[in-house]
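User: Hello! I'm new to structural biology and keep hearing that structure can be predicted from sequence alone. Could you demonstrate with Helix-turn-helix transcriptional regulator? Please show me the input and the output so I can see what each looks like.

Assistant: Of course. The first part below is the input, the amino acid sequence of Helix-turn-helix transcriptional regulator. The second part is the output, the predicted structure written as tokens.
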Amino acid sequence: MGARCISKEQLETTGFSYTLSLINGKYKMTILYTLMEFGVVRFNEMKKYIGGISYKTLSSTLKELEMDQLIHREEYPQIPPKVEYSLTERGKSLIPILDGMCDWGDKHRL
């Protein structure tokens, strides 16, 4: 088997690029980590836990993750409105990656 030649490759066709397209963004990994750690989380709980994220940014990021089928949004018809978020099976399949990042950070934190 010959060596791969970079001039014949394109990053956009790799699995890495596809995965990155789903999780790339300032808060996407943080939201996924939050749901991994706490399971089912309400919007305001997540906002408070993450801190520094605006309501608009949190809302739009959650919508993107939902469109990519990484999280599930459950809305309850009550007053005041209650909305909960959790990882889908597809989102849960990212847990080994998130765990690996946590382990790496624990080992290399200064």
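User: So the tokens describe the shape?

Assistant: Right, they're a compact way of writing down the 3D structure. Reading them back into a model, for example: The first strand starts at residue 41 and ends at 42.
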